[in-house]
Amino acid sequence: MTPDDYVVGHVGDALAHAGMSDVNAEVVAGRLVLTGHVATPARRDEVTTIASEAAGGLAVVNELTVLPCPPPAAAEELA
Fold first, then answer.
1. What integer pLDDT is reported at residue 49 of this predicted model?
2. 62 burial class (0-12, 13-18, 19+ CB within 10 angstroms)?
3. At a CB cut-off of 8 Å and minimum separation 6, what does 37 contact?
4. Cα–Cα distance for residue pair 1/18, rounded to 1 Å
5. pTM to 2 decimals?
6. What digits encode the pLDDT tens for the residues 52-78?
7. Which domains does the chain have, with CATH numbers?
8. β-strand 31-38 against 65-66: which pairing, if any?
9. Are 32 and 4 in contact (CB under 8 A)?
């Protein structure tokens, strides 16, 4: 196991513990790169914070996509 593998595993465990299963971490050129999807900008920031704390000093590059939330459909009428 390389040090990069350890960091990726540690970050993955921290994210999984926080319930963030649609996020991937990979060490590229000495930086931790996050990819995947989250529901809100706040969740994106939370992922960055968790990953930074678990990354062992590596710079974190957040490439997460915030999924768009379509407007609600027309109100349903009850009979």
1. 95
2. middle
3. 22, 23, 64, 65, 66, 67
4. 24
5. 0.81
6. 999 988 999 999 999 988 777 777 778
7. 3-66 (3.30.1340.30)
8. parallel
9. no
